[in-house]
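Project standup — Tuesday

K.O.: blocked on the structure for the chain from last sprint. Re-posting the sequence here as requested.
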Amino acid sequence: MLNTADRFQDAFSQPNPSRILRPGVPLLAPGVERYKVPGGGCVVVDIAKGDEIILTDLEGRQPVELVVSDRKGRLDPAILGKVPNSDAKGLKAILSSGSESARMVRRGLERRRLNLAKAKAIRVFSTRSPAGSTAEFQAHRDGVLVVATPGNAMHAGKQNTTTPIELRIKRCEIAAPGASLLPEPLADPLQDIHVDKATAETYFVRAGEYIQIIDVDGRQCTDFQCFSARKLDKGLERPLDATTTRTLIGMGYPTPGLPSKGFDRDMEPLVEVIRDTCGRHDAFALACTPRYYDDMGYPGHISCTENFNSVLDPYGIAARDGWMALNFFYNTAIDEHNVLYLDEPWSRPGDYVLLRALTDIVCVSSACPDDIDPANAWQPTDIHVRTYPNKETFTRAVAFRMTPDADPELTKETAFRPRFAEGTRNFTEYRGYWLPTHFNNAGAIEEYWACRERAAVMDLSPLRKFEVTGPDAEALMQYALTRNVRKLAVGQVVYTAMCYEHGGMIDDGTLYRLGENNFRWIGGDDYGGIWLRELAENLGLKAWIRSSTDQLHNIAVQGPRSRDILKEIVWTPPAQTALEELGWFRFTIGRIGGFRGAPVVVSRTGYTGELGYEIYCHPKDALTVFDAVWQAGEAHGLMPLGLDALDILRIEAGLVFAGYEFCDQTDPFEAGIGFTVPLKSKDDDFVGREALLRRKANPARKLVGLEIDAREAVGHGDCVHVGRAQIGEVTSGVRSPILKKNIALARLDVTHAGLDTEVEVGKLDGHQKRVPARVVRFPHFDPEKTRVRG
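H.V.: unblocked you, prediction finished:
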């Protein structure tokens, strides 16, 4: 029993704080700012006396140029206590490019009156710097710092890529609590409107102008509403209507791309979403109302509805008990139990939504005052609004983050997009890039048959590429991958898995061997490169892993006539394998058209189950490469192919897709690619070997093919039953044009995974509707792979 002293101590002991990990919110110390400078890019930032500047070469071998001026725009490298040791040609070349990021930096320099015509640079790091190398400086006076990561265009057959560096600034004077750091403007603003927490502000925007709504400190919601000014002048109040918008776009809320517009109840478009760096919003619930707080036991609590009523009154707009709105940054949705739930927003400091006005509009934005639940992470903060003139041009984009704590990167256009865009407006975001889904005057089925019968060309540039070099490169890849890399010859490609220690998959991909100590890893996930870099560091291996995704874009030419097309245009030197001689899973290095043509790497690989090739080139050569392929292919019936048709092709061919056939809880055997794990012939240890030995000896689930005995479509996530019991789920499903039936890939319990086992695919709630199916051999199409080997 506890004595009196113990009970007293227990009663008055302090409670432990709630322990929550938030990898999505960069946990930087007060006064620390972080900037990522992309390879071949630059940033401009103000610095103050006493600030510490730390540069980190994240991937190694990336030179950096620094240019410094005072606050009046006069070049002054002595601010960092250094003497320039190079010209600034790299920085100037970057700024002369036509990219939007270069345009933003140029405007930042203009606002600061900084002319770089006579600039000299302080050069740090070199082409021999190890990954993680750092350089530190201190500002002796206030000034402006420009940081650039220069580099030449990467040759497709070489590995001279440019990579990102990190800039951190430790401020000498830490901002007062509550002070916020606004991001650099996207252009010169027309209006800068600060919306204090628990308030709302109105503003007028003309047709064609842009509205940037910024979550200043992160985790803060803002309601947005707008009215056609023309209708208000006629006495008609027609606010943006969320129900009409959802109905017309077929989505929960507008997003960049085709489903981007917000409409009023007359179905007139008022705004369109151009950019979104958060990716989670709401258009179901009303802006918070007095009634909500009354019912929660907080009578008199200020609400967004009351704030809207107050600031809209001067426009003669009638007050309402509750305002419909686009609720930006709200993490609200309806769950599978038909319950409207909310949680903390996904937005980080500086996240924003960029809108474009489609007519003259009166707008209102709030900084939600909700502090009684997680809607604003329990602590309401400010919102900031900027408007920009209609002369500006901003790319459509959403944000992509490599890891939860990484900085956002906007959706990019591949270098081949101008040609594909001539045939379609149907693009979707895929892994940080826009890719076509299908093409006008054709569609997925016609594109599919072109690939099966003739040839098709598709854009696969979002594949992640990493250059792995150094004396320990082979040892690293041998330990990191399931395949036996020591057996890989120069000029050979191997398909392999990459696993965690527990046997779950990180990624699948292909490994190219360019030389004795030179490899190129091509996978689907940025984390593969991060993981390889961490593995090399932990093992003390001398190997560099440098990203080259933005330096190496690629198209695939697939189909029975692909060889005939490419042999007309791919020139190879005598020391390289000619294209018509190229074997399956081999590559060659050549040029387009002849000795002086655009350099390319061509591999006999693909994702369709057909004879096919992939062509890699630097983005600057992409249109030249595409035009040559297209011109040569016209006589062979070449067609462009989008993601919709590609999905049909790969499912028929039994080719797996991340997030569908495998994830970090799935081992290669369960993913149907057990052939990538040669446990008997690969004696060397590799990551996950022991776990995979156990999993292979005691299999629980197996990927199988299903033939569906109905014309009912089945798809990813559908449950599979034997009787009442669920024994697995569909990973992918499609109607096969060539097999004239519905087929699927499914992961089943091994008890019911035998050939010809009768199962049922559950629809609706899994029990009210069943679709008969039968376990069959997979791949469904060309299981002997005679076509791809042909």
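K.O.: great, moving the ticket to review. The radius of gyration is 29 Å. The mean pLDDT is 94.
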